[in-house]
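cache lookup: miss for this entity combination. No prior model stored, computing from scratch. Input as submitted by user K.M.:
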Amino acid sequence: MKLPRILAISKKQFQTLRHDKRTLALMLIAPILAMVVFGYAFGTGNKHAKVMVINQDCGATAQKIIDHFDTDTLSITYNNDTAAAKQSVRNGNAVAAIIFPPSFTADSHPVGPRPPQGAHLELYLDSTEAQQAPLVSSQIATALQDYAKDQEAVSAFAVDTGYAFPAAKNATFIDSFLPGIMAFAVTLFTILLTLLAFVGERTSGTMDRLRITPVTETEIVLGYELAFGIIAAIQASLMLLVATLAYHVLVVGSIWLAALIVILVAVDAQSLGILLSAAAQREGQAVQFLPIIIFPVFLLSGIFVPLQSLPDWLRPLAYILPPTWGIQGLRDVMLRGWEISQIWPILLVLLSFAIVFSYLSIVGLKRARN
Amino acid sequence: MTDRVVTFHSVRKLYGSFQALSGLSFSINKGELYGLIGPNGAGKTTAIRVLTGLNRHSSGDVTVLGHQPQDPKLRPLLGYMPQETALYQDLSVEENLRFFGKLYDIPAVELNRRVNDLLAFVDLEKWRSHVITELSGGMRHRASLAAALIPKPRLLVLDEPTVGVDPELRANFWQRFSEMQRDGTTILITTHYMDEAMRCDRVGLINHGQLVIEGAPAQLIHDANVSNLEEVFLKLAKREAPQ
């Protein structure tokens, strides 16, 4: 073993980096990017659960209990219309509606005999929000306890829980987590396969041979999209099968609609892969894109961290990631049982991503002729 | 009716600030076997990429079989064999040929016939079901030639088709090129081998993106007053780049 030879190998590696600025940048920037995104995504905790509060209490007790809510954890909007508040929950605009009835103070501080079940408040909950729904329940329990501690003559409190989506009232973390993982896995593997396939077409010379034939750039992109769409349909079927058989995941809505969303997510990923391939000269460079894709998608698209919990400045980034919409759509269909009439805006967004990315891919391929 | 199949007139091609072609002019006649020779970096491959429409030229005029190089009508008339194998490695020889054939909208019966004829022509009938990675280097070159011939091109463009090919296969290739020329195909070939250039009807020597000299090989040797084409090459390829 000779030191000069070891040093020669080390030096060669640094010389390579000097000529490959992209790898150098990735080595320096990617870990910091990962730290920042991880830090912000998880560091903020599970916060800002949107709740609608309808305070009809004729006394002051309800307001005192509301004052015990942690406003960092719950993002409270006041409303006077119970039906409208419940509709907001059913539309996915709020996690819960908390309704204090007119007799709340009277029932909790009875002058005469106490009512048999104490004072009731109504909780109308979207249990499909598996990360934030338990947060709301525990906040109410804590606030009621804290208030009761300060009072001596107080009746028992009772919470009547109603569910916005009764079929998913027992939804657990895994029910909400698996749709996220499905969209993530399809995005990751489709981008990887497309990137490698397109960079391979260029480096092997087959792209030049293709361009000599009458095939157009549009036909090339659509041909790839069709193939990856079919592959995604097979992937979606297998994943939904495993999810339902092995994990007994809730599928309240149409399984076909869920599969359609997975296919659209794959087409988005595929066209994004073609777009990115233009910036990679060889396979090694294509692989370098992966951490840049994995970190944001994994952390910002709502798989683990609810979008409402993200810092305000980071949230717009989440909305420009197609999987964010795919995951929301999958949860809407699988857990809430929403139909096409309710999730068409999400389908439209996913389709728009596909059209924009495909158009840019075609333009990129045509520009390569210059 | 012109007999010119290819015409380059004062063609320039810039890659950023680098001028790969600096006023290249040459022409190829119908049925001709034309050799483009020149040192590495002279602009041979760029000329081919412009001719085939793979890259747009920056200025000048290019006409190929009566069309602009980017004209979609030109594509079914062109066959192109790049330097590298340029076939799908995980497809069989036959699958590669059928794939490219379908891109030319060749009807199924005709495609069957062409695939069989070409597999016989390049002597790969026994290897038709083997994927490209299972073939030797020489076989891959032959498969690549077959793919270039699938549209029955009127102009066949071969970019250094015999680089890394053993002498027996080179001889074999040239026999096939001669057969195709006899059948009326016009052929443009770039090569570094002077014995191959000697087989061409006419040769164009380019350097620094310009045509230095052009003519029948024997005539070039005679005019330069040297004994072989290699000496012509060495004499003229040393010239400095134009200012």
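stored under new cache key. The longest strand of chain A covers residues 49-55.
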